[in-house]
Amino acid sequence: MNKKLLSLLFLIAPFFTFAQEKGLDQQIDEAFGNATGWFVDFIFYQIPFTDTINIYWVLFPLILGATYFTFYFNFINFKGFITSINIVRGKYDDLEGREDHHVEIAKSEFTDEEDNPDTIRIEGHDGEVSHFQALTAALSATVGLGNIAGVAIAVSIGGAGATFWMIVAGFLGMASKFVECTLGVKYRDIEADGTVYGGPMYYLTKGLKNKTLGKILAGLFAIFVIGGSFGGGNMFQVNQAFQLVENITTPVGGVSFLHGKGWAFGLVMAILVGIVIIGGIKKIAKVTDKIVPFMVAIYVAASIFVIFANYDMIGGAFLQIFNGAFSPEGIAGGAVGVLVQGFRRAAFSNEAGIGSASIAHSAVKTKYAASEGMVALLEPFIDTVVVCTMTALVLIITGNVNAENASLNDAQAILLTSGAFESAISWFPYVLTVAVVLFAFSSMISWSYYGFQGWVYLFGRSKKMEYTYKVIFCIFVVIGAAASLGSVIGFSDAMVFAMMVPNMIGLIFLAPKVKEELVRFMDAIKASKA
Q1: What pTM did the predictor assign?
Q2: Theoretical Cys-Cys bridge with 188: which of 113, 141, 173, 362, CB 3.0 to 4.6 Å?
Q3: CA dihedral 529, 82, 189, 290 (to 10 degrees)
Q4: Which tens digit of pLDDT belongs to each residue from 85-101?
């Protein structure tokens, strides 16, 4: 233990030393940008659409895939909504004991045989967490800063009309989430001690008929999810949280006592994150099932207060949203741009089609894969249709959607949202600061689990590999808090969107398997009512 502690201090010590030098943030940002710029440029290559509008190519598979799944599964995102709520409520828990299903006992080729000789799919309630805990664990990774800063950027660039397309993207994304999370449960590995390993790495490898292709895609996804966990799921989160904390502690005309000390804020967050993630998904789920409902309730309640405090403007706000999405001026002046902004930010916010959520949902206690897929489809609804729409309405009603804000970066956008709430609730920026820190914290602990699953897929399931990843993850918390935002945003967006490429290929090919699971689960529900 002492050797491990000394090793950790040795790795982190240079950051303490360099953190005191002037211009550290700029040095880190420059080095980070130089190392990752080529990858960011590739993922966010823009296809010219008109003389003034370019469209990110990564949006096409996300939009088209979500639309395809919506039709293929007969509008499961709408028809299955009530069933999904009932599953979370526990209405169908008794089904778990109604059917004896096939027990697969197989040595896993991904297992470190010295530590884990067998991978066993255990009879009964396979998994580690409940439906509700799996939902909150996945939500904690998506409900957060993208709902605050991301929405502000979308409506600032695309106008109020971007809100409409965010809502559309949210509804369509529900179908993608259903597919990937059903597959996550169907093809997961469960160790003899009950530990679950799941996600796109496993359904790509096990599900696709072409095993070579499956392994290549799974390996790519594992690399991307590790990068995404360090970027979008870690550095982006802590960086934005520090920006708001520094702002709230800055006196009028003065400088915050935290100025230039992002590394110190990051160190505190790293310690807190480390305490939780050492316990694995069970510990993470126990934290998220308390934090997520609390922080979402606070944020939505504040949004509702601001909206209804200006109740006379609600009708006008919805009119702006509709006109902005469909008006002739919008079409002539860039309606496609409005659509792109709405879809891009919705995709980054709810991650539907990205594949990350299937990792958390694969740990659920269930024998019906489709039951968890249906629980998962609630995520884009909560994340995008509810929370993002609330944020957009607050910004529109308080008059914070205008051309002057079109050039905002994420750091400025989060302050714009804070100011919008402050106009109606003077003390709310303090509450929002706490909420943002909780959003960031919960996102980081969930994303650490996502990245860990990719890590052990590539490097083995030994304790040594587990602790290596978790130490590196905590070090990146410190780096993220100290780095300038520009390179962090570009890298995190790119790695998260890159996950979509191998994942979406698998979802398309494996959709028939998902339909089989859906039929099996719905038949079980019908049989229980007979």
Answers
A1: 0.80
A2: 362
A3: -120
A4: 888 777 776 665 444 44
